[in-house]
Amino acid sequence: MILMLTLGLAVFLIMGIPVALALGLSALGATLLGGGVFQPTILAQKMQFSLQNYVLLAIPLFILAAKLMNTAGISMRIFRFADTLVGFLPGGLGHANILGSLIFSGMSGAAVVDAAGLGQIEHEAMTKSGYPSKFAVACTACSSIIGPIFPPSIPMVVFSFVSGVSVGRLFLGGVVPGLLMTAALMVWVAIQAKKHNYPRQPFPTAAAAKKAFAEAIIPLIAPVILLGGIWSGIFTPTEAAAVASLYALIVGVFVLRELSFKDLVAAFTATARETALIGLLVATSAFYAWVLMRTGLTLKLAEALVTLSKNPYVILILINLFLLVVGCFLDSTVAILILGPVFMPVLSAVGIDPVHFGVVMVLNLMIGLMTPPFGMILFVMQQVSGLRFEDVVKACMPTLIPLVVVLVLMTFIPALVTWLPNVLL
Predict the structure, then answer these.
(1) Which of 135, 157, 251, 261 has its CA 20 to 30 A from that of 371?
(2) 37 pLDDT above the threshold of 60
(3) What's the total number of domains in the chain?
């Protein structure tokens, strides 16, 4: 059964079978090989019950909010505002790229959404201003993974689903790491700008700054509403997703008047399609995780890790190394759904705060989105830039250094993650 779950899944993925189907087939095959009798009712129940979770409602709502924001032209407003704030620094548009992603992350919650939406605007603006396409690709790719760390975050919603940890605490736990990532990446841009003498934007006039702020004030209010509402207890993180969608709808249709009926239909259709894919993935992953637990492998792995060491930092180092490899091959959602339940017993055994671990795990897997051979952001940036895949990989690899530095700091200084949730919640 264990061989079918592991090697069988690997073979199905290599064959190019969709991930959700590969998970379901390998779990079903493991059940039959283990002497079980195929019972469609059990399969249906496990898949159905996995989707009957209130927390998961946040996923389609945040996706819808991001789609509406993108279509309404808010992405461009955010980028112009970020350019006004930091564009005069050496390598100015690189800094604006990163700061823009931090602001946009307060509405999207997904790295690929950032890369595909705001990323296209950022890459085009940088290349038109004389920056090399490879540098623009690197800035856009690395900045896009701020989104799943700084709240709201779809991967953290998924981690909350499998672990039972409060979504609100996870969201607040990502605030300081998200700011650290922004600072680290801006330092990297400054070093590259000085080394290659990249251009900078003129210092903005008062009129230009006032105009950029006026255009950006509406999208800037959204993260304040979401975080303020969660912190004050006015609404839950799942309800915050509904508020974000409603806010984007009102702003796009009645304030900016950029969303037509056709745009709304397209946004809702795309959201439904992506939600269906994620839902199928969650359902088959739940069945896979159930079969995995029946084999006893999760307990054996937990016992093996605890046997190696009961020092929480040693355990975190081992898990980090494992996740860095896994992230190169598995989608982050799949990795969280499968590995989250495996690691939870280990956390309680050695005294690791699950909020701390959740944010560390998400950042680790987000780095995987930028590593070959299956890093999704690399493929998105190839489409956005028109560069060869090998060139995209070479351009993005140096940006992993500041991201790994932040990951190490988060691993060894838990307070970077846990301080804000402990103070506010």
Answers:
(1) 157
(2) no
(3) 2
